Automatic annotation (TrEMBL):
Keywords in alphabetical order: Oxidoreductase
UniProt-listed Enzyme Commission number(s): 1.1.1.-
UniProt GO MF annotations: oxidoreductase activity
Protein name, UniProt field: General stress protein 69
Listed Pfam families: Aldo_ket_red (PF00248)
Enzyme class: oxidoreductase
Any one of the GO CC terms: cytoplasm
Superkingdom of origin organism: Bacteria
InterPro entries reported in the protein's UniProt record: AKR, Aldo-Keto_reductase, NAD(P)_OxRdtase_dom_sf, NADP_OxRdtase_dom
NADP-dependent oxidoreductase domain location: 2-226
Organism encoding this protein: Streptomyces jeddahensis
The UniProt record lists the keyword Cell membrane: no
Length: 237
């Protein structure tokens, strides 16, 4: 079992990567997880009020103490990655990446240069590539998808058309749409690890089976033809 956890948000979703807050959160995580060691510790979001050098310097304290094995960043840009890596090696970057969200591809050269692995969150495009996407009218007034551009009325139909084409292609490969989305990530780079969310065992089994779907260069080219710029509305949805 590998334990990964994060710090960097307040309870009201503000950013807080002050050294004293990092220490508090990590100590709480060790206690709450009933473990002596966290395998991978991430900063959840860059904090504009705290230099990344101070953040990673504090994270390094836990590595030196044997309480954390590896350090990671999330939602970071190239400059942040380089500055962080200069303080202590960064082992993983976790950013949004999917067929619908392509912006993070610009970071691949620096990840390869520095030997950093990539963890793709929202690999199913926040559910748009799940095979069961619905228009925004089907979601509760407080559903977070109401804030995402992929679901906006001016974008939804175009995105739904992309999904329909991808679903047809997935069916031709004997796979579901979500399996195609996960297999696409695995085929892009050998250092990419997708982390799909799953609410039931059937979905977990479906996601795991995506590893058995092999996509060729021709397949990847077809997917790029269908969604050349990702989802309509931008990479952040």
């Amino acid at each position: 079992m590998t334990i990964a956890t994060k710090f960097g948000f307040t309870q009201t979703w503000g950013t807080d990567s002050r050294p004293e807050h990092i220490r508090e959160v990590v100590d709480d995580s060790l206690r709450n997880l009933n473990t002596d060691t966290i395998d991978l510790l991430y900063q959840h979001m860059p904090d504009p009020n705290v230099p990344i050098e101070d953040v990673v310097g504090t994270m390094k304290e836990f590595v030196d103490a044997g309480k954390v094995k590896y350090l990671g960043l999330s939602n970071a840009d190239e400059d942040t990655i380089r500055r962080a890596h200069a303080v202590h090696p960064i082992s993983a970057l976790q950013n949004q990446y999917s067929i619908f969200a392509l912006d993070t591809e610009s970071l691949f050269p620096v990840l390869e240069e520095l030997g950093i692995g990539f963890v793709a969150y929202s690999p199913i495009a926040r559910g748009f590539l799940s095979g069961g996407v619905k228009s925004i009218d089907h979601y509760a007034p407080d559903d977070f998808r109401r804030q995402l551009a992929w679901w906006k009325p001016e974008n939804f139909d175009a995105n739904a058309a992309i999904v329909a084409e991808l679903a047809k292609f997935a069916e031709s490969k004997g796979a579901t749409l979500s399996q195609l989305a996960l297999a696409w990530l695995l085929a892009k780079k050998d250092y990419i690890i997708p982390i799909p969310g799953s609410r039931n065992l059937d979905r977990v089994a479906e996601n795991v089976a995506a590893a058995d779907l092999t996509l060729t260069a021709v397949d990847l080219a077809r997917i790029a033809e269908v969604a050349p710029e990702g989802g309509i509305g931008g990479s952040q949805g």
